[in-house]
Specification:
This protein is an alpha+beta fold. It folds into four domains: 68 residues; 212 residues, LuxQ periplasmic domain, N-terminal subdomain (Beta-Lactamase), CATH 3.30.450; 83 residues, Signal transduction histidine kinase, dimerisation/phosphotransfer (DHp) domain (Helix Hairpins), CATH 1.10.287; 155 residues, Heat Shock Protein 90 (2-Layer Sandwich). It is 52% helix and 19% strand. It contains 17 helices and 17 strands. The strands form four sheets. A five-stranded antiparallel β-sheet has the order 2-1-5-4-3, with helices on both faces. About 1% of the residues have low confidence.
Protein backbone atom coordinates (compact mmCIF):
# COMPACT_ATOMS: atom_id res chain seq x y z
CA UNK A 1 0.00 0.00 0.00
CA UNK A 2 1.36 3.36 -1.00
CA UNK A 3 1.54 5.98 1.74
CA UNK A 4 1.78 9.52 0.40
CA UNK A 5 3.57 12.48 1.93
CA UNK A 6 0.32 13.60 3.48
CA UNK A 7 -0.12 10.26 5.25
CA UNK A 8 3.50 10.23 6.36
CA UNK A 9 3.19 13.77 7.73
CA UNK A 10 0.07 12.75 9.64
CA UNK A 11 1.86 9.81 11.21
CA UNK A 12 4.86 11.91 12.19
CA UNK A 13 2.75 14.71 13.66
CA UNK A 14 0.59 12.22 15.55
CA UNK A 15 3.65 10.56 17.01
CA UNK A 16 5.12 13.90 18.09
CA UNK A 17 1.83 14.99 19.63
CA UNK A 18 1.53 11.72 21.53
CA UNK A 19 5.03 12.07 23.01
CA UNK A 20 4.49 15.74 23.92
CA UNK A 21 1.11 14.95 25.44
CA UNK A 22 2.49 12.14 27.60
CA UNK A 23 5.42 14.28 28.69
CA UNK A 24 3.13 17.21 29.44
CA UNK A 25 0.82 14.99 31.45
CA UNK A 26 3.73 13.83 33.60
CA UNK A 27 4.84 17.46 34.05
CA UNK A 28 1.37 18.65 35.08
CA UNK A 29 1.08 15.69 37.42
CA UNK A 30 4.41 16.47 39.09
CA UNK A 31 3.71 20.15 39.63
CA UNK A 32 1.52 21.01 42.55
CA UNK A 33 -0.38 24.23 42.03
CA UNK A 34 -1.47 24.23 45.65
CA UNK A 35 2.08 24.22 47.02
CA UNK A 36 3.08 27.06 44.70
CA UNK A 37 0.03 29.05 45.74
CA UNK A 38 0.88 28.57 49.41
CA UNK A 39 4.46 29.70 48.85
CA UNK A 40 3.21 32.80 47.02
CA UNK A 41 0.83 33.66 49.86
CA UNK A 42 3.58 33.27 52.47
CA UNK A 43 5.87 35.55 50.45
CA UNK A 44 3.07 38.06 49.98
CA UNK A 45 2.24 38.14 53.69
CA UNK A 46 5.90 38.67 54.57
CA UNK A 47 6.29 41.50 52.06
CA UNK A 48 3.06 43.18 53.17
CA UNK A 49 4.21 42.90 56.77
CA UNK A 50 7.52 44.52 55.79
CA UNK A 51 5.66 47.33 54.02
CA UNK A 52 3.36 47.84 57.03
CA UNK A 53 6.37 47.84 59.34
CA UNK A 54 8.02 50.50 57.12
CA UNK A 55 4.87 52.67 57.32
CA UNK A 56 4.73 52.23 61.09
CA UNK A 57 8.44 52.97 61.35
CA UNK A 58 7.88 56.18 59.38
CA UNK A 59 5.09 57.12 61.82
CA UNK A 60 7.35 56.34 64.79
CA UNK A 61 10.02 58.57 63.29
CA UNK A 62 7.49 61.38 63.00
CA UNK A 63 6.39 60.74 66.60
CA UNK A 64 10.00 60.96 67.74
CA UNK A 65 10.47 64.34 66.03
CA UNK A 66 7.22 65.64 67.48
CA UNK A 67 8.07 64.52 71.04
CA UNK A 68 11.56 65.97 70.83
CA UNK A 69 10.03 69.35 69.99
CA UNK A 70 7.02 69.20 72.30
CA UNK A 71 9.13 68.11 75.33
CA UNK A 72 11.75 70.79 74.68
CA UNK A 73 12.01 73.66 77.17
CA UNK A 74 12.31 76.26 74.41
CA UNK A 75 8.97 75.08 72.99
CA UNK A 76 7.46 74.98 76.48
CA UNK A 77 8.32 78.64 77.12
CA UNK A 78 7.55 79.74 73.55
CA UNK A 79 3.91 78.68 73.84
CA UNK A 80 3.64 80.87 76.94
CA UNK A 81 5.49 84.02 75.87
CA UNK A 82 5.51 83.67 72.02
CA UNK A 83 9.03 85.00 71.71
CA UNK A 84 10.27 85.90 68.24
CA UNK A 85 13.72 84.39 68.78
CA UNK A 86 12.21 80.87 68.84
CA UNK A 87 10.44 81.49 65.54
CA UNK A 88 13.50 82.91 63.81
CA UNK A 89 15.76 80.14 65.04
CA UNK A 90 13.55 77.09 64.56
CA UNK A 91 10.62 77.75 62.26
CA UNK A 92 12.62 78.17 59.05
CA UNK A 93 12.00 76.84 55.55
CA UNK A 94 14.89 74.42 55.91
CA UNK A 95 13.36 72.73 58.95
CA UNK A 96 10.44 71.39 56.87
CA UNK A 97 12.77 69.99 54.25
CA UNK A 98 15.23 68.50 56.72
CA UNK A 99 12.51 66.79 58.77
CA UNK A 100 10.41 65.87 55.70
CA UNK A 101 7.43 67.80 57.08
CA UNK A 102 4.60 69.69 55.44
CA UNK A 103 2.92 71.12 58.55
CA UNK A 104 3.88 72.32 62.11
CA UNK A 105 1.11 73.83 64.27
CA UNK A 106 1.06 75.11 67.84
CA UNK A 107 -2.08 75.19 70.03
CA UNK A 108 -2.63 76.61 73.53
CA UNK A 109 -4.08 74.94 76.63
CA UNK A 110 -7.68 75.20 75.48
CA UNK A 111 -6.87 74.11 71.97
CA UNK A 112 -6.64 77.68 70.71
CA UNK A 113 -4.50 78.02 67.59
CA UNK A 114 -1.28 79.96 68.22
CA UNK A 115 1.02 79.58 65.22
CA UNK A 116 1.39 77.56 61.96
CA UNK A 117 4.52 76.90 59.94
CA UNK A 118 3.73 74.96 56.75
CA UNK A 119 4.75 74.28 53.20
CA UNK A 120 3.01 75.83 50.22
CA UNK A 121 -0.44 74.44 49.42
CA UNK A 122 -1.31 73.38 53.01
CA UNK A 123 -4.04 75.98 53.59
CA UNK A 124 -6.92 73.48 53.49
CA UNK A 125 -5.17 71.16 55.95
CA UNK A 126 -4.46 74.08 58.33
CA UNK A 127 -8.09 75.10 58.19
CA UNK A 128 -9.21 71.58 59.14
CA UNK A 129 -7.14 71.68 62.36
CA UNK A 130 -8.62 75.01 63.50
CA UNK A 131 -12.26 74.34 62.47
CA UNK A 132 -14.51 72.74 65.05
CA UNK A 133 -15.97 69.42 63.96
CA UNK A 134 -13.29 68.77 61.36
CA UNK A 135 -11.14 65.64 61.61
CA UNK A 136 -7.98 67.59 62.42
CA UNK A 137 -9.64 69.58 65.20
CA UNK A 138 -11.10 66.41 66.72
CA UNK A 139 -7.63 64.82 66.83
CA UNK A 140 -6.17 67.86 68.64
CA UNK A 141 -8.90 67.76 71.30
CA UNK A 142 -8.78 63.97 71.75
CA UNK A 143 -5.00 63.87 72.15
CA UNK A 144 -4.01 62.75 75.64
CA UNK A 145 -0.80 62.82 77.64
CA UNK A 146 0.80 60.12 75.45
CA UNK A 147 -0.26 61.85 72.23
CA UNK A 148 -1.57 60.36 68.98
CA UNK A 149 0.39 59.25 65.92
CA UNK A 150 -0.69 57.60 62.69
CA UNK A 151 -2.49 58.02 59.38
CA UNK A 152 -5.50 60.26 58.89
CA UNK A 153 -7.51 61.56 55.94
CA UNK A 154 -7.61 65.35 55.79
CA UNK A 155 -9.72 66.85 53.00
CA UNK A 156 -9.64 63.61 50.98
CA UNK A 157 -5.83 63.34 51.24
CA UNK A 158 -3.82 60.95 53.39
CA UNK A 159 -1.55 62.51 56.01
CA UNK A 160 0.83 61.06 58.54
CA UNK A 161 0.53 63.15 61.70
CA UNK A 162 1.76 63.14 65.28
CA UNK A 163 -0.01 65.15 68.02
CA UNK A 164 1.80 65.60 71.36
CA UNK A 165 1.19 67.66 74.48
CA UNK A 166 3.79 70.39 75.11
CA UNK A 167 5.67 69.72 78.37
CA UNK A 168 8.95 70.71 79.90
CA UNK A 169 12.01 68.52 79.46
CA UNK A 170 11.32 66.72 82.76
CA UNK A 171 7.78 65.86 81.65
CA UNK A 172 6.51 66.86 85.08
CA UNK A 173 4.62 70.09 84.71
CA UNK A 174 1.14 70.60 83.42
CA UNK A 175 0.87 70.68 79.58
CA UNK A 176 0.77 74.22 78.25
CA UNK A 177 -0.42 73.34 74.74
CA UNK A 178 -0.37 70.89 71.86
CA UNK A 179 2.09 70.46 69.00
CA UNK A 180 0.98 68.96 65.64
CA UNK A 181 3.47 67.75 63.03
CA UNK A 182 2.32 66.21 59.74
CA UNK A 183 3.29 65.25 56.25
CA UNK A 184 1.31 64.18 53.21
CA UNK A 185 1.55 60.43 52.68
CA UNK A 186 0.22 59.90 49.16
CA UNK A 187 1.22 57.91 46.10
CA UNK A 188 4.51 59.80 45.65
CA UNK A 189 5.65 59.04 49.19
CA UNK A 190 4.49 55.42 48.86
CA UNK A 191 6.43 54.96 45.60
CA UNK A 192 9.51 56.33 47.34
CA UNK A 193 8.97 53.89 50.18
CA UNK A 194 8.43 51.05 47.66
CA UNK A 195 11.75 51.81 45.93
CA UNK A 196 13.52 51.63 49.27
CA UNK A 197 11.90 48.26 49.95
CA UNK A 198 12.19 47.16 46.29
CA UNK A 199 8.43 46.64 46.13
CA UNK A 200 5.63 47.75 43.80
CA UNK A 201 3.34 49.52 46.30
CA UNK A 202 0.22 51.61 45.76
CA UNK A 203 -2.89 52.84 47.55
CA UNK A 204 -6.45 51.83 46.66
CA UNK A 205 -9.69 53.22 47.98
CA UNK A 206 -11.44 51.08 50.58
CA UNK A 207 -15.01 50.63 49.33
CA UNK A 208 -16.09 47.72 51.53
CA UNK A 209 -14.42 46.56 54.72
CA UNK A 210 -12.97 43.08 54.01
CA UNK A 211 -13.29 40.18 56.41
CA UNK A 212 -9.50 39.93 56.80
CA UNK A 213 -6.88 42.65 57.03
CA UNK A 214 -4.69 40.77 54.49
CA UNK A 215 -6.12 39.13 51.39
CA UNK A 216 -5.06 38.21 47.85
CA UNK A 217 -6.31 38.35 44.27
CA UNK A 218 -5.25 35.39 42.13
CA UNK A 219 -3.88 36.41 38.73
CA UNK A 220 -5.73 35.32 35.61
CA UNK A 221 -2.52 34.38 33.78
CA UNK A 222 1.07 33.47 34.60
CA UNK A 223 2.34 36.74 33.12
CA UNK A 224 0.30 38.90 35.50
CA UNK A 225 1.66 39.90 38.89
CA UNK A 226 0.29 38.48 42.11
CA UNK A 227 -1.61 41.17 44.01
CA UNK A 228 -2.03 41.34 47.78
CA UNK A 229 -3.84 43.89 49.91
CA UNK A 230 -3.54 45.02 53.53
CA UNK A 231 -6.02 47.24 55.37
CA UNK A 232 -4.27 50.26 56.89
CA UNK A 233 -6.05 51.81 59.85
CA UNK A 234 -6.22 55.44 60.85
CA UNK A 235 -5.05 57.11 64.03
CA UNK A 236 -8.11 55.82 65.89
CA UNK A 237 -7.81 52.24 64.59
CA UNK A 238 -10.57 52.46 61.98
CA UNK A 239 -10.09 51.04 58.42
CA UNK A 240 -8.72 53.84 56.27
CA UNK A 241 -7.19 52.65 53.00
CA UNK A 242 -5.91 49.53 51.19
CA UNK A 243 -2.16 49.07 50.75
CA UNK A 244 -1.68 47.18 47.48
CA UNK A 245 1.43 45.14 46.64
CA UNK A 246 2.06 43.73 43.14
CA UNK A 247 4.63 40.94 43.26
CA UNK A 248 6.29 38.94 40.52
CA UNK A 249 5.48 35.23 40.63
CA UNK A 250 8.89 34.18 41.91
CA UNK A 251 7.40 31.03 43.36
CA UNK A 252 7.57 29.51 39.90
CA UNK A 253 11.34 30.01 40.01
CA UNK A 254 11.44 28.31 43.39
CA UNK A 255 9.54 25.40 41.88
CA UNK A 256 12.05 25.06 39.04
CA UNK A 257 14.04 22.63 41.17
CA UNK A 258 11.13 20.21 40.73
CA UNK A 259 11.69 20.23 36.98
CA UNK A 260 15.07 18.46 37.15
CA UNK A 261 13.72 14.95 36.66
CA UNK A 262 11.36 16.20 33.96
CA UNK A 263 14.17 17.99 32.11
CA UNK A 264 16.27 14.82 31.94
CA UNK A 265 13.29 12.87 30.73
CA UNK A 266 12.35 15.50 28.14
CA UNK A 267 15.91 15.76 26.85
CA UNK A 268 16.07 12.00 26.29
CA UNK A 269 12.64 11.93 24.63
CA UNK A 270 13.39 14.86 22.36
CA UNK A 271 16.74 13.40 21.44
CA UNK A 272 15.19 10.13 20.31
CA UNK A 273 12.32 11.95 18.64
CA UNK A 274 14.67 14.31 16.83
CA UNK A 275 16.74 11.40 15.49
CA UNK A 276 13.62 9.61 14.26
CA UNK A 277 12.03 12.70 12.67
CA UNK A 278 15.29 13.78 11.06
CA UNK A 279 15.84 10.35 9.56
CA UNK A 280 12.31 10.09 8.21
CA UNK A 281 12.20 13.64 6.79
CA UNK A 282 15.65 13.38 5.23
CA UNK A 283 14.90 10.01 3.64
CA UNK A 284 11.39 10.60 2.39
CA UNK A 285 11.17 14.36 1.89
CA UNK A 286 14.21 16.61 2.30
CA UNK A 287 16.65 14.62 0.17
CA UNK A 288 14.14 14.27 -2.65
CA UNK A 289 13.21 17.95 -2.54
CA UNK A 290 16.92 18.80 -2.79
CA UNK A 291 17.15 16.59 -5.87
CA UNK A 292 14.29 18.54 -7.44
CA UNK A 293 15.93 21.80 -6.44
CA UNK A 294 19.24 20.78 -7.95
CA UNK A 295 17.59 19.77 -11.22
CA UNK A 296 15.63 23.04 -11.43
CA UNK A 297 18.57 25.25 -10.44
CA UNK A 298 20.55 26.87 -13.24
CA UNK A 299 19.85 28.74 -16.46
CA UNK A 300 17.00 26.58 -17.65
CA UNK A 301 15.36 29.17 -19.88
CA UNK A 302 18.64 30.20 -21.51
CA UNK A 303 20.39 26.82 -21.69
CA UNK A 304 21.12 25.05 -24.98
CA UNK A 305 19.10 21.91 -24.18
CA UNK A 306 15.85 21.17 -22.44
CA UNK A 307 15.97 19.88 -18.89
CA UNK A 308 13.82 17.09 -17.45
CA UNK A 309 13.20 16.34 -13.78
CA UNK A 310 13.87 12.77 -12.67
CA UNK A 311 12.93 11.58 -9.18
CA UNK A 312 12.81 8.11 -7.63
CA UNK A 313 9.86 6.92 -5.61
CA UNK A 314 6.14 6.65 -6.07
CA UNK A 315 4.26 9.46 -4.31
CA UNK A 316 3.08 13.05 -4.72
CA UNK A 317 6.60 14.37 -5.33
CA UNK A 318 6.86 12.18 -8.45
CA UNK A 319 3.48 13.50 -9.63
CA UNK A 320 4.75 17.00 -8.97
CA UNK A 321 7.93 16.42 -10.98
CA UNK A 322 5.87 15.14 -13.93
CA UNK A 323 3.64 18.22 -13.77
CA UNK A 324 6.69 20.49 -13.59
CA UNK A 325 8.20 18.76 -16.64
CA UNK A 326 5.04 19.44 -18.61
CA UNK A 327 5.01 23.08 -17.50
CA UNK A 328 8.70 23.50 -18.36
CA UNK A 329 8.09 22.24 -21.87
CA UNK A 330 5.21 24.67 -22.32
CA UNK A 331 7.23 27.54 -20.87
CA UNK A 332 10.17 26.88 -23.16
CA UNK A 333 7.90 26.81 -26.18
CA UNK A 334 6.08 29.97 -25.16
CA UNK A 335 9.35 31.71 -24.32
CA UNK A 336 10.76 30.92 -27.74
CA UNK A 337 7.60 32.19 -29.41
CA UNK A 338 7.59 35.36 -27.33
CA UNK A 339 11.25 36.10 -28.06
CA UNK A 340 10.73 35.53 -31.75
CA UNK A 341 7.61 37.71 -31.81
CA UNK A 342 9.34 40.47 -29.86
CA UNK A 343 12.33 40.39 -32.20
CA UNK A 344 10.11 40.50 -35.29
CA UNK A 345 8.07 43.35 -33.81
CA UNK A 346 11.11 45.42 -32.92
CA UNK A 347 12.76 44.89 -36.30
CA UNK A 348 9.50 45.59 -38.10
CA UNK A 349 8.89 48.83 -36.21
CA UNK A 350 12.44 50.00 -36.73
CA UNK A 351 12.47 49.14 -40.44
CA UNK A 352 8.99 50.47 -41.12
CA UNK A 353 9.61 53.69 -39.22
CA UNK A 354 12.84 54.22 -41.10
CA UNK A 355 11.29 53.39 -44.50
CA UNK A 356 8.29 55.65 -43.85
CA UNK A 357 10.35 58.54 -42.51
CA UNK A 358 12.43 58.86 -45.69
CA UNK A 359 9.49 59.42 -48.09
CA UNK A 360 7.79 61.63 -45.48
CA UNK A 361 10.74 64.03 -45.61
CA UNK A 362 10.33 64.13 -49.40
CA UNK A 363 6.58 64.78 -49.12
CA UNK A 364 7.08 67.57 -46.61
CA UNK A 365 9.80 69.07 -48.79
CA UNK A 366 7.54 69.08 -51.84
CA UNK A 367 4.76 70.68 -49.78
CA UNK A 368 7.13 73.47 -48.77
CA UNK A 369 8.16 73.96 -52.42
CA UNK A 370 4.51 74.12 -53.51
CA UNK A 371 3.87 76.81 -50.92
CA UNK A 372 6.39 79.02 -52.71
CA UNK A 373 4.49 78.80 -56.05
CA UNK A 374 1.62 81.03 -57.03
CA UNK A 375 -1.76 79.75 -55.85
CA UNK A 376 -4.97 81.07 -54.44
CA UNK A 377 -5.90 81.17 -50.73
CA UNK A 378 -7.90 77.94 -50.83
CA UNK A 379 -4.97 76.04 -52.33
CA UNK A 380 -2.68 77.60 -49.75
CA UNK A 381 -4.97 76.34 -46.94
CA UNK A 382 -4.96 72.85 -48.43
CA UNK A 383 -1.15 72.83 -48.43
CA UNK A 384 -1.02 74.08 -44.83
CA UNK A 385 -3.32 71.28 -43.72
CA UNK A 386 -1.23 68.73 -45.61
CA UNK A 387 2.02 70.10 -44.14
CA UNK A 388 0.67 70.06 -40.58
CA UNK A 389 -0.63 66.51 -40.96
CA UNK A 390 2.69 65.41 -42.45
CA UNK A 391 4.67 66.96 -39.59
CA UNK A 392 2.41 65.23 -37.05
CA UNK A 393 2.85 61.92 -38.83
CA UNK A 394 6.62 62.40 -38.96
CA UNK A 395 6.65 63.10 -35.21
CA UNK A 396 4.76 59.85 -34.56
CA UNK A 397 7.17 57.94 -36.82
CA UNK A 398 10.16 59.42 -35.00
CA UNK A 399 8.68 58.40 -31.61
CA UNK A 400 8.04 54.84 -32.80
CA UNK A 401 11.57 54.61 -34.23
CA UNK A 402 13.03 56.00 -31.01
CA UNK A 403 11.20 53.56 -28.72
CA UNK A 404 12.16 50.70 -31.06
CA UNK A 405 15.84 51.64 -30.87
CA UNK A 406 15.71 51.83 -27.10
CA UNK A 407 13.96 48.46 -26.71
CA UNK A 408 16.35 46.84 -29.19
CA UNK A 409 19.34 48.23 -27.25
CA UNK A 410 20.71 50.16 -30.24
CA UNK A 411 20.71 53.56 -28.51
CA UNK A 412 24.08 54.75 -27.19
CA UNK A 413 24.58 57.52 -24.63
CA UNK A 414 27.35 60.02 -25.32
CA UNK A 415 29.34 62.06 -22.82
CA UNK A 416 30.39 65.42 -24.20
CA UNK A 417 31.08 68.76 -22.56
CA UNK A 418 28.30 71.33 -23.10
CA UNK A 419 26.86 74.56 -21.71
CA UNK A 420 24.02 73.43 -19.44
CA UNK A 421 22.20 76.72 -18.85
CA UNK A 422 22.50 77.81 -22.48
CA UNK A 423 21.06 74.47 -23.63
CA UNK A 424 18.05 74.75 -21.30
CA UNK A 425 17.37 78.35 -22.39
CA UNK A 426 17.47 77.35 -26.05
CA UNK A 427 15.03 74.49 -25.54
CA UNK A 428 12.67 76.83 -23.69
CA UNK A 429 13.00 79.41 -26.45
CA UNK A 430 11.88 76.90 -29.10
CA UNK A 431 8.42 76.74 -27.51
CA UNK A 432 8.16 80.44 -26.63
CA UNK A 433 6.26 81.30 -29.82
CA UNK A 434 3.76 78.42 -29.45
CA UNK A 435 3.22 79.36 -25.80
CA UNK A 436 2.69 83.02 -26.66
CA UNK A 437 0.00 82.12 -29.23
CA UNK A 438 -1.94 80.42 -26.38
CA UNK A 439 -1.35 83.34 -24.01
CA UNK A 440 1.18 81.39 -21.96
CA UNK A 441 4.54 82.46 -20.58
CA UNK A 442 7.57 80.19 -20.25
CA UNK A 443 9.83 81.21 -17.35
CA UNK A 444 13.31 79.71 -16.96
CA UNK A 445 14.87 79.73 -13.48
CA UNK A 446 18.36 78.58 -12.42
CA UNK A 447 19.75 78.15 -8.92
CA UNK A 448 23.04 79.87 -8.30
CA UNK A 449 24.84 76.65 -7.34
CA UNK A 450 24.09 74.96 -10.67
CA UNK A 451 27.30 74.68 -12.74
CA UNK A 452 27.44 76.23 -16.21
CA UNK A 453 29.61 73.61 -17.94
CA UNK A 454 28.91 69.89 -17.51
CA UNK A 455 29.67 66.57 -19.20
CA UNK A 456 26.78 64.45 -20.46
CA UNK A 457 24.53 63.69 -23.44
CA UNK A 458 23.11 67.09 -24.30
CA UNK A 459 21.08 65.69 -27.22
CA UNK A 460 19.15 63.23 -25.07
CA UNK A 461 18.62 65.74 -22.26
CA UNK A 462 17.31 68.19 -24.86
CA UNK A 463 14.99 65.49 -26.19
CA UNK A 464 13.55 64.85 -22.71
CA UNK A 465 13.05 68.57 -22.09
CA UNK A 466 11.40 68.92 -25.52
CA UNK A 467 8.88 66.22 -24.61
CA UNK A 468 8.10 67.68 -21.18
CA UNK A 469 7.81 71.34 -22.31
CA UNK A 470 5.80 70.33 -25.37
CA UNK A 471 3.31 68.48 -23.15
CA UNK A 472 3.14 71.44 -20.76
CA UNK A 473 2.27 73.83 -23.63
CA UNK A 474 -0.21 71.33 -25.09
CA UNK A 475 -2.16 70.71 -21.86
CA UNK A 476 -2.08 74.27 -20.43
CA UNK A 477 -4.62 76.83 -21.57
CA UNK A 478 -3.67 79.74 -19.29
CA UNK A 479 -0.97 80.63 -16.80
CA UNK A 480 2.78 80.12 -16.60
CA UNK A 481 5.12 77.25 -17.42
CA UNK A 482 8.22 77.13 -15.20
CA UNK A 483 11.40 75.42 -16.39
CA UNK A 484 13.63 74.95 -13.34
CA UNK A 485 17.23 73.88 -12.90
CA UNK A 486 18.45 73.31 -9.34
CA UNK A 487 20.79 71.24 -7.20
CA UNK A 488 19.59 68.88 -4.47
CA UNK A 489 21.58 66.30 -2.48
CA UNK A 490 24.53 66.59 -4.86
CA UNK A 491 22.38 66.00 -7.99
CA UNK A 492 21.30 68.43 -10.70
CA UNK A 493 17.52 68.34 -11.16
CA UNK A 494 15.51 69.49 -14.18
CA UNK A 495 11.85 70.38 -13.58
CA UNK A 496 8.95 71.46 -15.79
CA UNK A 497 5.93 72.82 -13.92
CA UNK A 498 2.67 73.83 -15.62
CA UNK A 499 -0.76 75.06 -14.59
CA UNK A 500 -2.68 72.80 -16.93
CA UNK A 501 -5.43 70.20 -16.61
CA UNK A 502 -3.45 67.96 -14.27
CA UNK A 503 -3.49 64.17 -13.88
CA UNK A 504 -5.61 62.23 -11.39
CA UNK A 505 -3.68 60.30 -8.75
CA UNK A 506 -4.88 56.89 -9.93
CA UNK A 507 -3.53 57.61 -13.44
CA UNK A 508 -0.02 58.77 -12.43
CA UNK A 509 1.38 55.23 -12.50
CA UNK A 510 0.33 54.80 -16.17
CA UNK A 511 1.79 57.95 -17.76
CA UNK A 512 5.21 56.34 -18.37
CA UNK A 513 3.79 53.28 -20.13
CA UNK A 514 4.10 53.07 -23.92
CA UNK A 515 1.04 54.01 -26.01
CA UNK A 516 -0.79 55.09 -22.84
CA UNK A 517 -2.35 58.41 -21.87
CA UNK A 518 -3.94 59.42 -18.57
CA UNK A 519 -7.40 59.54 -20.16
CA UNK A 520 -8.69 58.14 -23.45
CA UNK A 521 -10.37 61.47 -24.13
CA UNK A 522 -6.97 63.18 -23.97
CA UNK A 523 -5.78 61.68 -27.24
CA UNK A 524 -9.02 62.68 -28.94
CA UNK A 525 -8.81 66.28 -27.72
CA UNK A 526 -5.06 66.97 -27.70
CA UNK A 527 -3.66 64.25 -29.99
CA UNK A 528 -0.43 62.33 -29.47
CA UNK A 529 0.65 58.69 -29.33
CA UNK A 530 1.49 58.36 -25.66
CA UNK A 531 5.17 57.64 -26.47
CA UNK A 532 6.76 60.92 -25.34
CA UNK A 533 6.86 60.18 -21.63
CA UNK A 534 7.89 56.49 -21.98
CA UNK A 535 10.76 57.61 -24.27
CA UNK A 536 11.72 60.27 -21.73
CA UNK A 537 11.72 57.75 -18.88
CA UNK A 538 13.86 55.26 -20.80
CA UNK A 539 16.33 58.00 -21.86
CA UNK A 540 16.64 59.27 -18.29
CA UNK A 541 17.27 55.76 -16.98
CA UNK A 542 19.86 55.12 -19.73
CA UNK A 543 21.67 58.24 -18.50
CA UNK A 544 21.71 56.85 -14.94
CA UNK A 545 18.88 58.98 -13.58
CA UNK A 546 15.24 58.85 -12.57
CA UNK A 547 12.12 60.82 -13.46
CA UNK A 548 9.30 61.77 -11.08
CA UNK A 549 5.80 63.22 -11.51
CA UNK A 550 3.36 64.94 -9.16
CA UNK A 551 0.03 66.40 -10.16
CA UNK A 552 -3.30 67.79 -8.96
CA UNK A 553 -6.34 67.75 -11.22
CA UNK A 554 -7.23 71.29 -12.27
CA UNK A 555 -4.06 72.81 -10.79
CA UNK A 556 -1.23 71.47 -12.92
CA UNK A 557 1.59 68.92 -13.18
CA UNK A 558 5.27 68.92 -12.27
CA UNK A 559 7.83 66.58 -13.88
CA UNK A 560 11.29 66.32 -12.29
CA UNK A 561 14.28 64.26 -13.36
CA UNK A 562 17.99 63.98 -12.81
CA UNK A 563 20.78 62.30 -14.80
CA UNK A 564 24.45 61.60 -14.16
CA UNK A 565 26.37 64.70 -15.16
CA UNK A 566 30.07 65.35 -14.75
CA UNK A 567 31.21 68.72 -13.48
CA UNK A 568 33.89 70.48 -15.52
Amino acid sequence: MRIGLKGKSYLIVSFICLVVFMSGSVLVYQLSSRSISKVEKVLMEENLSRADFAVQESSRGLQSFCRDWSWWDDTYYFVQDLNEQYIRSNLTEEILTNLDLDLVMFFGKEGKHILTHSAEGMESAELCFVTDGCQGSNIVHKSGHDGLTGLVRINHRLMQISVQKILDSNIEKTPVGTLVMGRYFGDRQLVKLGKALQMDLSFQELKDVPEKDIFFVSPESVEEKLKGFMVLRDIFGKPLVLLSLAMERDAYKIGSSQFTIFIYFMCGSLLLLGIAVTFVLNRYFVSRVKILQGQLRGEYFTGPEKRELQLRGNDELNDLSDSVNEILVLLQEQKAKAEAASKVKTEFLANMSHEIRTPMHSILGMVELLKETKMDDEQQDFLNVAGTAGENLLEIINDVLEISKIEAGHLEIENQEFMLREMVERVSGIFAADAARKGLQIVTKFDGDVPDRVIGDATRIRQVLNNLISNAVKFTSAGTIDVLLYSDSGKIFFAVKDEGIGISEDKLSHVFKSFTQADSSTSRKYGGTGLGLPISRKLVELMGGKIFVSSTVGEGTTFRFYVNLGIV
